[in-house]
Amino acid sequence: MTPALCLIDRYAAHLPVTSRTPRLTLGEGGTPLVRAPSLERETGIDAVWLKVEGANPTGSFKDRGMVVAVAKALEERSGAVLCASTGNTAASAAAYAARAGLPCTVVLPAGYVALGKLAQAIAFGATVVSVRGPFDAALAVVKELAAQGEATLVNSVNPHRIEGQKTAAFEICETLGDAPDALFIPVGNAGNITAYWQGFVESVAAGFATRRPRMYGWQAEGAAPIVRGVRVAEPETIATAIRIGAPASWQGALRARDESGGAIEAVSDAEIMDAYRDLARREGIFVEPASAASVAGLRKRAQGAGLRGASTVVCVLTGSGLKDPDTARSLTRDVALVDATADAVMGAIAHASRA
Ligand code: AN7
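^ thats the input. predicted complex w/ AN7 below
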């Protein structure tokens, strides 16, 4: 059996890599695309597919771009990598830097990074610094440090990140045999919607697809600068991954929206939490709150402005639910603690079913 190719090798012809680019890999990409029968029944859409990006090595889509960015940093003999992050970029940068033998610094918005992401950055040995202020303030700081030559910036303003992330669009076209009618995706810093659109455009040129999907991007209501057309100074949402007020790839998101005939709209935290809970309970897929914004958006469109006859749609589930154990824990009452006897456990089950 031939070993599976790493992402860089699999898509080398479509990435900014050469034979000299190190074949860095942690097994990123090749994530599951699974049907969502409960959402199909609810919306009446023929085929709703979920791209489960939480299955990447560090539990989010960031690994696709990070492997390319860190490989290129190695190729260019960079001495260190640096990023600002709401958490997932930090976890991914820290992992690939560890693998590459490069020091990594991550700058985080204090108090708003989910526990699993913080745990990853620490475990992978990154230098972790929290700053007062939102992600946008942290990004401004690391841009300044990178300009001073401190390290290679691996935020999505680094074009290699977008190049790597576009491979998810290739995979969707390969698996479905063509592009879907519509793609639903959460939007924070707007790198991923930019990357997917580039990936779908290139898919037609590469022969992976004959057409391009309409792109529907979803921001949280309290952090919806692109929807409102103005920066948000103090973004707020339970979906901390997309708690961003001044997206770096704002223009890329507008291009994806306008060239595809799609839309960028907002969903409330309550809509996000409903989708978060239902994805886990009805589909068996545990995502982090930001990822559920894509499904909340699908539900909103299916009821409201409509899907204009779309019969095959894909929702991108960007990150694993294990990233944010505190939000999961907030869903339930206390877990029963009883003696280790059948009677006591039966009593607790009976009590739970009455509650
Ligand atoms: C789970 O890690 O911005 O619109 O610093 O972690 O490309 O920013 C994360 C973003 C969606 C939004 N879902 O993607 C970061 C960071 C999850 C995320 C997004 C993020 P972009």
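DSSP finds 15 helices and ten strands in the chain.
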